[in-house]
Amino acid sequence: xxxxxxxxxxxxxxxxxxxxxxxxxxxxxxxxxxxxxxxxxxxxxxxxxxxxxxxxxxxxxxxxxxxxxxxxxxxxxxxxxxxxxxxxxxxxxxxxxxxxxxxxxxxxxxxxxxxxxxxxxxxxxxxxxxxxxxxxxxxxxxxxxxxxxxxxxxxxxxxxxxxxxxxxxxxxxxxxxxxxxxxxxxxxxxxxxxxxxxxxxxxxxxxxxxxxxxxxxxxxxxxxxxxxxxxxxxxxxxxxxxxxxxxxxxxxxxxxxxxxxxxxxxxxxxxxxxxxxxxxxxxxxxxxxxxxxxxxxxxxxxxxxxxxxxxxxxxxxxxxxxxxxxxxxxxxxxxxxxxxxxxxx
Length: 345
Known about the structure:
InterPro entries: YkvI-like. It is built from 16 helices and no strands. With 345 residues, it is an all-alpha fold.
């Protein structure tokens, strides 16, 4: 089939939507993994961009070549059948708990808007189920509609902040002689890999030409890299204020009108939503292989089952669950990046 540029862009926006979760959009991931290191963080952003590009291309190539239906089939190619069976359950647990964090994050966002925590949870649950009804095409169309809005708002916020405060400023590296910055780029990429694996592994039959793999990987990585660099630069300029905010993004909009602040909060909710949809999409495709129900039914049941668990609270879930998956994510990232060399051998 012929190369389709628009289809490539839709895949790239799905990658961006998966990566721009609440952590990225809020600035917390950007600050913790990059900005907190000071001037030395810029090359680390570039390294993370290159790693993201390589991982996306490898996963999409495997999915396209073997027409994979879900992440377990990609793991079988990368890790081998035996090891893949073990990691299959670990990845499933990660996706479930990560989705739980996202749904609880929606509840926390509604609380910030003086609303009900449970209302936020139910709105997120209903919105995710709605997209599941339209399968992979619904996921890609949703990202194609929402990602340009999210990226535009974040770019405008950063540019406006830099224009008001002056573009040029000096940055002193912090903690000279301490740990190097580059491992943080690897950790950041690994941190987001599982959600990416979950959604890209389902696209094998959607890719119409091998060039779409390179274009979608390149466009998404370039967009995320430029946005992360701009975001990081802005946060460095506002570093004296970042510690005062749980969400660093609000340090850039402290002088904005309440309407603007609400709009940015809505973008944060959208970021949570796009990542949650990717996670549940991956879960539903994996489970539906062994169940006599369509994927949207499986995904809907999963979402409804998670609702009672959100009462554990957003902060508690993040603090306890995320560190557990560090080794898992790093190992899978390493094997994904080594796959082309091992496969050729």
